[in-house]
């Protein structure tokens, strides 16, 4: 049971006490030092439990010898079983002070010995009990959030891809940063796979939106694309099939996904290779040059917009030693050097030209650092980078 914590601690107090004299004394003491306290009295723990009187109390003063219990700590255990979030201060007799200490050990917030507590001590014990329960509840919620976040991180890391390029002659460097707080993956995705025919396929994509549902959809699209490639589906059919998956699995019919796909036939001995690029509303890949440049095909509609959409290919020549940068638009939509316009593709090409000497292994991370420096802080959107390069004949 989740108990709502009081906004004004100590206002509503329930006294479980069968002795009218003791009950009257508590009422008098509280009226002197805490006139704002609303005290209700019950002479039976059975009535408290049966009618859930504890639910409306901010603090419960419980006499351990109230009728309806077998004595000792039985009543406290029954009360805490019914309401684990209750702030309880137990009342003991002079000869039962040891029970008060034991009561704190099993869940009470404090204890008072009858006849030794004046008004200030009583009101302080009530407020202390509530604040201690508030602190304990806060720690429990924090721990639950930490466990949930850790579980989410483990799950999301399991969804991050490892490019399958062994024996292809193509190397991959990657970078990923989610725009969501305390999240590992967002709606952006990437992958690279060697198909059964020896062609290297690569993809970067961006599901519109930034929530966990979009992240899950992005992971599903990536895994589906990989399965299609490894199953030997023809390159021209990959985007139509991926669009079918998107339309079938999206939770909102307005969701769309931008995608860039690339099919690379590595060069033979001394010759050039070729790459086949298709764009579905996505920025084109960058040939790192020198100089850095793009050779974009006609940009087709994003996936999920038109069931009959087509995505025209563009063939690019890949000279020996080539490098290709694929990325999502989170990299170029931050502030540019002019301040009034985003970085866009032109600004990215300029940055790449200025940092042409940066080793490929560190280029993706370095590039994000430079973009964030120009932006004046972290980028708001997800960023995915896939850097592919020629490693010589397979």
From TrEMBL:
Q: Which residues form the Response regulatory domain?
A: 12-129
UniProt keyword Hydrolase, yes or no? yes
- GO MF terms, alphabetically ordered: phosphatase activity
SUPFAM superfamilies registered for this protein in UniProt = CheY-like (SSF52172)
Q: Does the keyword Ribosomal protein apply?
A: no
Note the superkingdom of the native organism.
Bacteria
| One GO-annotated biological process of the protein | phosphorelay signal transduction system
Q: Which residues carry this modification: 4-aspartylphosphate?
A: 63
Among Pfam families, the record links this protein to: Response_reg (PF00072), SpoIIE (PF07228)
UniProt keywords, alphabetically: Hydrolase, Phosphoprotein
User: InterPro entries this protein is in?
Assistant: Bact_Sigma-Reg, CheY-like_superfamily, PPM-type-like_dom_sf, PPM-type_phosphatase-like_dom, Sig_transdc_resp-reg_receiver
Protein name per the record: Serine/threonine phosphatase
Question: Which source organism?
Answer: Pseudonocardia sulfidoxydans NBRC 16205
């Amino acid at each position: 049971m989740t108990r709502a914590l009081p906004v004004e601690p100590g206002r509503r107090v329930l006294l479980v006490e069968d002795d009218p004299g003791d009950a009257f004394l508590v009422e008098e003491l509280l009226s002197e030092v805490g006139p704002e306290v609303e005290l209700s009295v019950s002479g039976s723990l059975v009535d408290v439990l049966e009618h859930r009187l504890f639910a409306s109390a901010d603090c419960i003063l419980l006499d351990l010898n109230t009728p309806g219990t077998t004595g000792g700590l039985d009543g406290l255990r029954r009360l805490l079983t019914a309401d684990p979030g209750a702030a309880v201060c137990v009342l003991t007799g002079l000869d039962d002070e040891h029970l008060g200490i034991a009561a704190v050990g099993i869940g009470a917030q404090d204890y008072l010995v009858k006849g030794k507590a004046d008004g200030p001590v009583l009101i302080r014990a009530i407020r202390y009990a509530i604040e201690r329960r508030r602190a304990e509840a806060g720690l429990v919620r924090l721990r639950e959030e930490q466990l949930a976040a850790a579980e989410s991180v483990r799950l999301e890391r399991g969804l991050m891809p490892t490019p399958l390029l062994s024996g292809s002659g193509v190397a991959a460097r990657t970078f990923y940063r989610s725009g969501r707080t305390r999240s590992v993956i967002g709606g952006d995705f990437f992958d690279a796979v060697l198909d059964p025919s020896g062609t290297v396929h690569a993809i970067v994509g961006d599901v519109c939106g930034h929530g966990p549902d979009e992240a899950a959809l992005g992971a599903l699209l990536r895994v589906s694309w990989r399965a299609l490639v490894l199953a030997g589906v023809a390159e021209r059919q990959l985007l139509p099939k991926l669009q079918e998956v998107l339309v079938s699995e999206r939770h909102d019919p307005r969701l769309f996904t931008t995608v860039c796909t690339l099919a690379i036939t590595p060069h033979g001995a001394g010759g050039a290779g070729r790459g086949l690029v298709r764009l579905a509303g996505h920025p084109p890949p960058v040939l790192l040059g020198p100089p850095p440049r793009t050779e974009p095909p006609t940009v087709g509609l994003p996936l999920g917009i038109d069931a009959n959409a087509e995505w025209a290919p563009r063939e690019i020549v890949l000279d020996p030693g080539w490098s290709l940068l694929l990325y999502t638009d989170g990299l170029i939509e931050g502030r540019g050097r002019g301040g009034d316009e985003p970085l866009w593709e032109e600004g990215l090409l300029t940055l790449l030209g200025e940092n042409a000497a940066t080793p490929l292994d560190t280029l993706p991370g370095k590039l994000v650092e430079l973009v964030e420096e120009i932006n004046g802080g972290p980028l708001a959107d997800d960023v995915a980078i896939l850097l592919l390069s020629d490693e010589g004949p397979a």
